[in-house]
Amino acid sequence: MPNYCLLVEYAGEGFAGWQIQAPGARTIQGCLVEAIERITGERVAVTGSGRTDAGVHAEAQVASFALARAMDPEKFQRGLNGVLPREIAVRGLRAVPGDFDALRAARGKRYRYRIWNHPVRSPLRAARFVHVAQTLNVGDMARAAECLVGEHDFSSFQAAGSGVKTTVRRLHRLDVLGAPGGEIEILAEGSGFLRYMVRNLVGTLIEVGQGRRSVVSVAEVLGARDRSLAGPTAPALGLALEAVEYDEGLGPLTGTSLHSDGKTEASEDLEA
After folding, report:
1. Are strands 88-96 and 47-48 parallel, antiparallel or unpaired?
2. Residues 129, 132, 136, 141, CA torsion sign
3. CA 52 to CA 57: how far, in whole Å?
4. What pLDDT is attached to residue 65?
5. What confidence score (pLDDT) does residue 218 get?
6. What is the pLDDT of residues 16-57, one digit of tens each?
7. Hey, what domains does the chain have and what are their CATH numbers?
8. Residue 45: which of 60, 29, 61 has the closest Cα?
């Protein structure tokens, strides 16, 4: 059966997340399944590189699926974009080897969290930036982030009640970019993420920037492996899946390559 890979961009607000849920829940995966069926007449299973949560955006989500018959990729892409809702767009589509699975083959991911740090809210940024009125100490946030890079048990930063096999993850980078009084971005890149992990990291770093917790306390929170000691979960609207890394043989579809040590935790795929 022909196997295909999609590069998908979507605005997450108004959706219950990536994964198909109960009838009536609007999801990214559900919209893709319906669009593919409208174009091909086939009801297929669409596998994403990970399951972004409700309200989380994606600039480069990757998904794969198999069809009973081959399709012209260019015409197929145009057809899908013609029937998908305006919040979802297929930026790329190509045939891939039959054993390719967007989830299992993922080697790494990069997320970007956007903050508007200004006393006055910005209506034009309201859908993509989280507004924090209090001036943040970006230098302290960056120093606190440094202790989180590497392979650690991130139990303190996972969603409460998560039942994953292991809470150990490798974080390749956690950069705090920008300046107080404007746009601040936090880049998180790693081989895999726990549910809410990025947003819980961001919520903790924001508290550091506000002076509500010290720089050194973040390492203590990490070592405690206790979710109750970390900061609040930052709002979903500021988070976007920016890139997914695969082996070079997949080609340019996935965009910018990421650092990878060959390890992946893709089996635990409910993230962000």
Report:
1. unpaired
2. negative
3. 8
4. 98
5. 98
6. 999 999 888 999 999 999 999 999 999 999 999 999 999 999
7. 3-105 (3.30.70.580), 110-241 (3.30.70.660)
8. 29
Coil, strand or helix at 177: strand
Residue numbers annotated as active site = 53
- Reading the block at residue 48, the tokens are 């994403």
Q: Residue 208, Cα to own-chain centre: how many angstroms?
A: 23
- Residue 128 neighbours by CB distance under 10 Å: 17
Q: Residue 104 phi/psi, 5° resolution?
A: -70, -25
**DSSP state letter for 249:** G
Going by C-beta distance under 8 Å and a sequence separation of 6 or more, which residues neighbour residue 116?
122, 125, 129, 130, 131, 132, 182, 183, 184
Distance CA 23, CA 28 (A): 14
Q: Are 269 and 103 in contact (CB under 8 A)?
A: yes
Q: Could you write out the DSSP letters of every residue in 129-166?
A: -EEE-SPP-HHHHHHHHHTT-EEEE-GGGSPTT---S-
> What pLDDT was estimated at residue 163?
75
Q: Is pLDDT of 269 > 60?
A: no
Take residue 189 and report the two structure tokens written for it. Answer: 């890149």
Q: Are 132 and 176 in contact (CB under 8 A)?
A: no
Residue 109 contacts residue 49 (beta carbons within 8 Å): yes
- Name 165's bridge partners: none
Per-residue confidence at 161, pLDDT binned at 50, 70, 90?
confident
